[in-house]
Amino acid sequence: MAQIKKLVLDVLKPHKPNALEFAVALADLSSQLKVRLTVAEVDEKTESTIVFIEGGDVDYEAIAERITRLGGSIHSIDEVEVIGTGEASGSS
């Protein structure tokens, strides 16, 4: 199965937790994760953010679940970097 090395997500999140707390909560999913968060836009109740996640094998499902638990929602996957493992999937 291919390994996800990098994800760039467009995420809408509430003001609380703040950007630092939000990024730390994502990074705490694995000691291999590096998380960078940029606030792109702020309105009365929410923040539009771009979340950059890099690691040895990023678990998208765990990231998505944590974002939801923190009150956020993924609007789009804007960039992805995947490395194949050389294992063939399916039959020929």
State the main characteristics.
21% helix; single chain; alpha+beta; 2 helices; four-stranded antiparallel sheet; 45% strand; Alpha-Beta Plaits; 92 residues; elongated
CATH class: Alpha Beta
Low-confidence residue ranges = none
Q: What is the number of beta strands?
A: 4
Helix content: 10-25%
Distance between the termini: 17 Å
- The chain-level structural class is alpha+beta
Q: Please report the number of helical segments.
A: 2
Strand order of the largest sheet: 2-3-1-4
**What is the percentage of strand-forming residues?**
35-45%
Helix and strand succession?
EHEEHE
CATH superfamily: MTH889-like domain
Name of the CATH architecture = 2-Layer Sandwich
How would you characterize the largest beta sheet? Answer: 4 strands, antiparallel
Mean pLDDT: 94
Rounded to an integer, what's the Rg over CA atoms? Answer: 14 Å
Number of domains: 1
Indicate the overall shape.
elongated
Secondary structure blueprint with pairings:
Layout: E1 3-14, H1 19-27, E2 34-42, E3 46-54, H2 60-69, E4 73-83
Antiparallel strand pairs: 1-3, 1-4, 2-3
Q: Can you put this structure into words, describing what you see?
A:
The chain is an alpha+beta fold. The protein contains two helices and four strands. A four-stranded antiparallel β-sheet has the order 2-3-1-4, covered by helices on one side.
